[in-house]
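ok so I'm stuck.
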Amino acid sequence: MLKEKVKELLEQGLQEDPSLFLIEFAMGADNGIHVVIDGDQGVTVNDCIKISRAIENNINREEYDFSLEVASAGAAAPLVMPRQYLKNIGRKLEVRTNDDKFEGDLTEVKDDSIILEWKARVPKPVGKGKVTVQKKEEVNFSDIIKAKVVLKF
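replied:
not stuck anymore, here's the structure
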């Protein structure tokens, strides 16, 4: 009963700001509610507060005992939804599939795939030495096992 009410309130809260979307919702046996959100322009502390209040202010504490945590998807968290890739165009991603691992700049997001581009050193076709070439790979969302943004410090 509580879980359904929380889901409903969460959906209402997210509808108030269409740039926000749900990444993860979990509820433990001890009524510990864990919500992870992301946004097309990122997530602020105020966004988390807004979603938290949308849930907490509409549930009677005398009827239900629960804890609530609303967080943003962290910078190092894996990308799990196609919508997350759009805001990361131009950033370097590390993408793992069943067959390969790629690290390159995300240059395009299509309906069912992404395009990564990077420079690589390969042996010259003739003679000794290496030459730098531009590589490009299209990866289907269905083939991605794990993808994350590569952070530079």
